[in-house]
């Protein structure tokens, strides 16, 4: 069933996540001509809609002449859309030299559709996730130079930092050569890849790596409503909870953009879109348009901060169930983001992940595993197991526990350096200590031992076997640190 749905899906590439209202209008017309009333947005700033059984020739004729690339009928995507943080410029904080034209120039330099997932992002913003690609370029403080974090899917969810800064004009060349290596050779480390480049004829402009960037704690990106920009301009973010965007409204929005001289419409990975540069004098026209179509532009943060696979009814129903349960508890989740994974390959970019699991030794039924990012910051790209093989009915209570844990450990000064442990707290000699898991903050107290690990009271932490693990998140003994007894 899942493969049939995927084969029936048309995926339109929107390079960098931005396109003109005229191009979006053409895409809406193609979708409507195929019998659709809605379109959907994907996690990589692309546009999707069903083909409704139309054959490839009909679809090809529909797209002919509009100059927009698309994909149809593949069970597994061969090519990938390039993700960029263009939408964040003038909407959130950004690195001083990164402008809309910075992304325009970079995107235009790609003359081929990549097979690898490429992200061009800026760590100062939180609207576009940093590490959802396989090649993640992150703006440095050196103008026109970028960090590169490589995630080789053959090596799992591990990222490595390229040992040099890379000049922006060389990014397409680097991507093209790395793609060849990824497709033809066994995995290499980032250092080995650099050596290959240095020994080859490939000329790349590098700068020494000053230090691996430290990323501030990710703030939940509020992306909905009519909000102020600079110079008396506004941006509008619109969200549909079922990711089905009405074509009639989208066409009307495109035409209003044209009438009010807005040049770009922006898609973001949270499966929604943003219109930037609305003049104060045009605000009323947008308000009237949204009123005409009955659009709610003020959803709660609990509703907004979820990432789900496209066209996944199971994930959507689970989200609805969890929102209902959490809303009844009146729980605060602002600052946290959630993903639901239903046995599909996806890179996490949220604080908490709820993954459907299979448990062979249990009675039939659905089980789930809950993970969360180290320090609840997806920039770490390290996820810790909080609970395994639990029933659906237990998830809300565990999410409430995690939300409370998040606020207890929250530190506005905290920064994450990818792949680097945070410094330990100093403990004075002779000061009484307990040992705390650095991942989930669970404390081992020798006065109580650990009944779940069959450790009786009175056993000091240093006397525990090397195989001891945290009973909450399964972190090994070496991940515990001494902390003073308060």
The CATH topology of the largest domain is given as Sulfite Reductase Hemoprotein, domain 2
Low-confidence stretches: 419-430
Quick check: average pLDDT? 84
CATH class category name of the largest domain: Alpha Beta
Taken together, the total number of domains comes to 4
Biggest sheet character: 7 strands, mixed
What do you see in this structure?
- This protein has 11 helices and 27 strands.
- With 486 residues, the protein is an alpha+beta fold.
- The chain folds into 4 domains: 2-80 and 221-299, Alpha-Beta Complex (Sulfite Reductase Hemoprotein, domain 2), CATH 3.90.480.10; 93-126 and 128-216, Sulfite Reductase Hemoprotein, domain 1 (2-Layer Sandwich), CATH 3.30.413; 303-409, Sulfite Reductase Hemoprotein, domain 1 (2-Layer Sandwich); 433-484, Rubrerythrin, domain 2.
- Strands 6, 7, 8, 9, 10, 11 and 12 form a 7-stranded mixed β-sheet that branches. Strands 5-1-4-3-16 form a 5-stranded antiparallel β-sheet. Strands 2-17-18-15-14 form a 5-stranded antiparallel β-sheet.
- Helix 2 (21-33) runs antiparallel to helix 7 and helix 7 (247-259) runs antiparallel to helix 8 (283-292).
- The radius of gyration is 24 Å and the shape is globular.
- The protein starts with a helix and ends with a strand.
- 35% of the residues are buried.
